[in-house]
Amino acid sequence: MVTYTLIGVCCAVFLLGPASGLGVPHGTDGDLLLAQNAYFERWGVVPEELWHGSPERLVTPLTALFVHGNWLHLLGNMLFLHVFGAMAEERMGRASFALFYLAAGVLALLGYAAAHADSGRTLVGASGAISGVLGAFLCLFPRARVTSLFPFLFFLPLRFPAWAVLLFWFALQWLAARGAGDRPGVAYLAHVVGFALGFLYAWARYRCAARVKDTAASGDGPRPPR
């Protein structure tokens, strides 16, 4: 499945790169930190360089999707992709899901870069693409039940409808994006853009198409005599 292939590729890239801290060639302490910064700047999206730098920077919205900043960043993203990706892939089909995932991720990063065109901050991670998957999942499977852990509920594993979990998650991202700007930390705006694009794509591709097909089918039937 494409979902598990993406998880495998992201994990392999992380383990082989300096961000994992496991690679001996990258050194330790200060040398490791320099290697990590150079790695992120090479493969990540830097908005001011994307719009005003060399043409080779135009590929970074794609490469950045497979680079993660630390273990928590990687594991959190892969958990969300594992939970929500398989069902979305089954509904869309492998090829369509792969293209959708990459497009949502690239457009989410471009959306952030456009809003902060003069920022020198480096963006890495699959969060924008996975946010697109979440948005599509909300549209395709709103009544599916997912297991969630909430800190204010003492991390008890509870099952809620997908629409409740995902709308709550989106609201948190929206509120955080309004106050985050381009400060270091999580690129919440990329999450918001990816989620919105994923939902709109699934709605237009599957919900609207199904309604049009149903309308056409009902119009082909025999008409009652007047």
SSE blueprint:
Elements (H helix, E strand, L loop, with lengths): L1 H15 L12 H15 L3 H6 L7 H4 L7 H22 L1 H22 L11 H14 L4 E4 L9 E4 H19 L7 H32 L7
Antiparallel strand pairs: 1-2
What are the key terms here?
mainly alpha; two-stranded antiparallel ribbon; 226 residues
Give your account of this protein's structure.
The chain has 226 residues and is mainly alpha-helical. The chain has nine helices and two strands; from the N terminus they run αααααααββαα. The protein has helices spanning 2-16, 29-43, 47-52, 60-63, 71-92, 94-115, 127-140, 162-180, 188-219, and strands spanning 145-148, 158-161. The mean pLDDT is 86.
SSE pattern:
HHHHHHHEEHH
Q: What's the overall geometry?
A: globular
For the termini, the CA-CA separation is 54 Å
Strand content: under 5%
Looking at how many chains there are and whether they match, the oligomeric state comes to: single chain
Number of strands: 2
Radius of gyration: 20 Å
What is the residue-mean pLDDT, rounded to a whole number? 86
- Structural class by SSE content: mainly alpha
Helix share of residues? 55-70%
Number of helices: 9
Please summarize what this structure is.
With 226 residues, the protein is mainly alpha-helical.
